[in-house]
Design goal:
With about 400 residues, this protein is α+β, with helices and mostly antiparallel strands. The protein contains 9 helices and 21 strands. The strands form 5 sheets. A 7-stranded mixed beta sheet has the order 6-7-8-9-10-11-14. A 5-stranded antiparallel beta sheet has the order 2-1-3-4-5, with no helix packed on it. It has a 5-stranded mixed beta sheet with strand order 17-18-19-20-21, sandwiched between helices. Strand 3 and strand 4 form a beta hairpin. Helix 1 crosses helix 3 and helix 4 packs parallel to helix 9.
């Protein structure tokens, strides 16, 4: 079923126009003898004029036609094209049906344009199944020739909705209307826009009052999470402003967190330096005690990270050494003792049985060797490097 055919002498003729688009009458091609010299603009096969039981005029392929998209067109598709063409004219545009692209790579169901020729928009009645990739490729071919496109369907949830500029149609109060596809930005989310007659929708499209927009912000139900929506330019700008402000707040928060981490690092380094300075001032045994505490403090975070990697849980690390663990700092996972940080090597021999099931954490190979010489064979000892800033402070 087709609306357009090619007459040998008159050129393109259109079944839906009173004068066939060439100042001729329907009776000059319908039920005439000999049959009017009509051919299909798509496959070049002979055609003839017909009238359906509902008095719809169209052109049909003669018997023996090859596979042709126009020959396989359904009555529903045919009717929707007529309605889209009528709506385009109602919106003030010039509308032609079944217009081929310049190189034949595409064919528009309805090609709408302004009278001055400044823009062209294909109105596509897409009722048959199609994949998102295929419909995107078709729209891209049209756009390559400077023709925008709007894809219409009456299907409730076509898989290609949101892939190309689209609108879902439904009869509302006896008139065809756009019931999905329009949206507006409110607060921080997109929400469903109004339902409008298709002629009014096209008037907005042709005038640029609504534009296809690739959504980035979340949606508010019942609006579906479609990538492409029709919206007014000010809503596109509102989304951009909202996302820019959101990104700015995120950067500010990250900067504050970096500053806080840096302050904590400086405080930790300062504490380590002060502890080392006190140890050097006190000398001898006290210096060793303070150095041990500084080493244990420097290993607190690396040990926590190590245990988290091994167990999947963040441990609880005591804030000081305990005599029952050779003055090492206990490390717990939940309520279970997991390990000890930097015990005193000279005290580990007496506690070797108690320390055997635990992980001993040390800061250097030399410390590992000293402790391994006092503990049971097979004792698990892990070297955990302190942060560079702590190492520099210890020097």
């Amino acid at each position: 079923m087709a609306i357009r055919a090619v007459h040998d002498q008159w050129g393109a003729v259109f079944a839906h126009l009173p004068d066939l688009g060439c100042r001729r009458d329907w009776t000059e091609v319908w039920k005439v003898r000999p049959i009017a010299p009509l051919t299909c603009d798509e496959c070049r096969h002979p055609m003839y004029a017909k009238v359906s039981s509902s008095r719809l005029r169209f052109f049909a392929h003669a018997p023996g036609a090859p596979k042709c998209a126009l020959a396989e067109e359904s009555p529903a598709h045919h009717l929707l094209k007529l309605e889209l063409a009528a709506a385009a004219r109602e919106a003030g545009a010039h509308a032609e049906l079944e217009v081929r692209g310049p190189d034949g790579a595409w064919r528009a169901d309805v090609l709408a344009s302004d009278l001055a020729g400044g823009w062209k928009t294909a109105l596509e009645a897409q009722l048959s199944p199609i994949t998102p990739d295929d419909i995107a490729a078709r729209a891209e071919r049209m756009l390559g020739d400077g023709v925008a496109s709007v894809w219409f369907s009456d299907r409730v949830r076509a898989p290609w909705f949101g892939t190309v500029p689209w609108a879902r149609l439904q009869t509302v109060d006896g008139a065809l209307a756009v019931v999905e596809g329009l949206a507006k930005f409110s607060g921080n989310r997109w929400e469903a826009g109004p339902q409008v007659p298709v002629g009014e929708f096209l008037r907005w499209v042709f005038a640029g009052r609504v534009v296809p927009h690739r959504r980035r912000a979340p949606v508010r139900s019942p609006l579906g999470a479609w990538s492409i929506l029709w919206t007014a330019p000010q809503y596109s700008e509102a989304e951009s402003a909202h996302l820019a402000a959101q990104e700015r707040r995120k950067r500010e928060q990250e900067e504050q967190e970096r500053a806080l981490r840096e302050r904590r690092r400086q405080e930790r380094d300062r504490e380590i330096r002060e502890a080392q300075e006190r140890a050097r001032a006190e000398g001898g045994h006290q210096a060793a005690i303070e150095a041990l505490k500084a080493r244990q403090a420097a290993l607190e975070i690396p040990v926590a990270q190590f245990v988290h990697r091994e167990t999947g849980s963040y441990p609880f690390v005591e804030d000081k050494g305990a005599p029952e663990y050779a003055m090492g700092v206990p490390v717990y996972v939940g309520l279970t003792l997991y390990g000890v940080v930097c015990p005193v090597a000279g005290r580990t021999g007496a506690l070797r049985d108690q320390l055997a099931p635990l992980v001993i954490f040390v800061a250097s190979e030399a410390e590992r060797r000293r402790i391994a010489a006092q503990t049971k064979p097979g004792q698990k000892i892990e070297i955990v490097r302190p942060p560079r800033s702590s190492l520099a402070a210890q020097r």
